[in-house]
Amino acid sequence: MASERERLLFAPRPKLHLPQAAATASRSRHLPLLDEVRPIDRRTRPVHCVWELTLRCDLACRHCGSRAGHARPDELSTEEALDVVGQLAALGELEVTLIGGEAYLHPGWEAVVAAIRAAGMACAMVSGGRGIDRDRAARAARAGVESLSISIDGDEEVHDRLRGVRGAYASALSALRHGAEAGMQVAVNTQVNRLNMSRLHRVLDRLLEAGGHGWQLMLTVPAGRAADEPEVQLQPSDLLVLFPTLMELRARCEAHDVKLLPGNNVGYFGPYEHALRGGIRSACYADCSAGRSSLGIEANGDVKGCPSLPTRNWVGGNLRDHALVDIWERTPELRHMRARSTGELWGYCAECYYAETCKGGCTWTAQSFMGRPGNNPYCHHRALEFQARGLRERVVQRTPAWGEAFDYGVWEIVVEPLEAEEDDATCRR
Questions:
Q1: Which of 327, 221, 310 is closest to 264 using CA atoms?
Q2: Nearest to 141 by CA among 80, 183, 171, 175
Q3: C-alpha 406: how far from its chain's center?
Q4: Which of 12, 44, 138, 422 has its CA 20 to 30 A from that of 27?
C-alpha cells in the first residue's frame, strides 16, 4: 500500500489557480498611538528585522503564508524604503533580513541593501532562488548582502510540488552555488510538514555540498495558502518523531560546522531543548520574541512584531503615518509580548509546568490554528506528556482561511488514544 506521504504527494491539488493576496491597500492607516510610553517600551529594542520588501514573487508556493504573487498596490517606494533604513538603525537594529515575495523584484533592492550596510547593520536575504542567477548573485554581494538563504523543502519531487513550479528545485540549488561563488555565506531554510519530514537529511546533503553555514527549520503553519491544504500539516504527535530526527541532523551539522537553527515555532522543552537551543535561547527570552527582539515590516509600511503574524490582528501602525520608534513604543500590538502573562493562556497551556516560562510559545502558530494566542499544541513537552498517558492530540480544520495575506482558519483539538491512527507511520519515519 502506498504510504500516506506518497498519497499526499501525488493527490490532485485542491485549487487549479492558487489564490494570491487580494490587491488591497493597507487597512492599517491612521491607527492611533497610545499616550503613555512605559519604561519597558524604551528599554526594549529589536535586534532583528525581517522586511518584506515586495510581495511580488516569481514562484507559486503552496505553503506561502503571505499568498505572494502580485506586488501590493501601495508598496513603499525606494525613497521611502531608504528612509525606513535610517529609522531601523536609529531604533538599534543589528540585522535586517530582506524577504518577499522576492526582495530582488523590488526596483530599489540593491540601494536598500547598500543603505542597510552603510548604516552599520548586517544584511541577509531569503529567497526561493528562482531568479538568483550568476549576475544577480554578484550584484547582491556587491550591494552588501552577507548571507543568502535559499528555501529548500525536500528533494526535487517534494520541493517542486510545494513550490508550485517545475524546475524550482534546480533553480534553488543553482542559487546556492551562485551565492557561494559570489562570496556570500549561503544557508538554507526549510518548512517541515508531512511531505518532507522523512527527507530532511537529503536537504542537509545539498547544504553541505554547497558549503553552507546555517540551516533554519520551522514548522509549516496553516496561514495563507498553507491553510488551503490542511492534510499537509504535521500533527502534534509527529513531534515525537521529528525531535529525535532534529538531534540526528544537529549531530551532522555540528560535525560540518553548520549552525542548526530551530525556528521559534519548533517547540518546546522536551529532553532535547538545551541541545537544540542552548546557544540561541536564554531563559529571559524562552517565549514569543515578537515585539521584543524581533520586528516585521510589510511592503506597504505596515509594522508588526513578527513578520509571520496575521496582518488583521497584529499590525500596530503604518510607516507613512508614524515614525517607527512611535509604532514600536506606543501601539498595543507591538507592546503585547512585553507585558505578556500567563493570564492569556488557556487549554493545556494554562496548566502546563512551563507556563510561566513559555507563555504559550509561538503566537503565530497558536493564532493560525486556534484563532487566538495562548494555547499551542505544537510542543514537544506537551506531546510527550500526552504520550505518557497513552493519548495524542490531533488538530482538525473547522473553518477555512478567507483569502488574504497571512490569513488563517480555525482548527479544533481532538484528544484520542495514541494508537488511534497508525496508517501514516511511513510518513513519519
A1: 221
A2: 183
A3: 11
A4: 44
φ, ψ of residue 188 to 5 degrees: the values are: -130, 145
Tens of pLDDT, residues 316-372: 999 999 999 999 999 999 999 998 899 999 999 999 999 999 999 999 999 999 999
Q: How far apart are CA 37 and CA 93, in angstroms?
A: 20
How far apart CA 213 and CA 154 sit, in angstroms, is 18
Phi, psi of 285 (to 5 degrees): -130, 55
Integer Cα distance of 308 and 416 in angstroms: 30
**Residue 301 near residue 54 (C-beta atoms within 8 A):** no
Distance of alpha carbon 5 from alpha carbon 428, whole angstroms: 8
Q: Which of 279, 310, 309, 278 is nearest to 292 (CA)?
A: 309
Q: How many CB atoms lie within 10 A of CB 84?
A: 21
- Taken in order 414, 415, 417, 421, is the CA torsion positive or negative? positive
Which residues contact residue 244 at a Cβ distance below 8 angstroms, ignoring those fewer than 6 apart?
272
Residues 6+ apart with CB under 8 A from 255: none
On whether the CB atoms of residues 325 and 87 are closer than 8 A, the answer is: yes
Pull the grid cell for residue 358: 513559555
User: Of 205, 204, 194, nearest to 239 (Cα)?
Assistant: 194
236 within 8 A of 393, measured Cβ to Cβ: yes
Name, in order, each residue with C-beta under 8 angstroms of 40's C-beta and a sequence gap of 6 or more.
Answer: 338, 339
Spatial separation of the C-alpha atoms in residues 53 and 176, rounded to whole Å: 21
| Tens digits of residue pLDDT in 251-282 | 999 999 999 999 989 988 889 988 998 755 54
123 neighbors 167 (Cβ within 8 angstroms): no
